[in-house]
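Justification of resources, computational component.

The compute hours requested in this renewal are based largely on the per-chain cost of generating structure records like the one below. Each record pairs the submitted sequence with a full structure-token output. That output is archived, and it is also reused by downstream analysis tasks.
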Amino acid sequence: ANELRETRLLEPADFTEPVEVNIYGNKISAVSFVENELIGVIIESKVLANVHRQMFEMLWRGAKKQNPANS
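The structure output for this chain reads:
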């Protein structure tokens, strides 16, 4: 069967904060999972969503490809 996704890995030491960021449409959602500091925010902005997409693409290009057999 063909793999329908591609996974790339970054160094865990480069991302030390338990935060999830999602980009969808013209929105960005950010959620902090720090104990006693749980917070989430959604920002609706075409410009900010596009900037986050550009940052994602830069990280994606620099990330190591994962072998599909190991995923």
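The chain has one helix and five strands. Residues 46-62 form the longest helix (17 residues).
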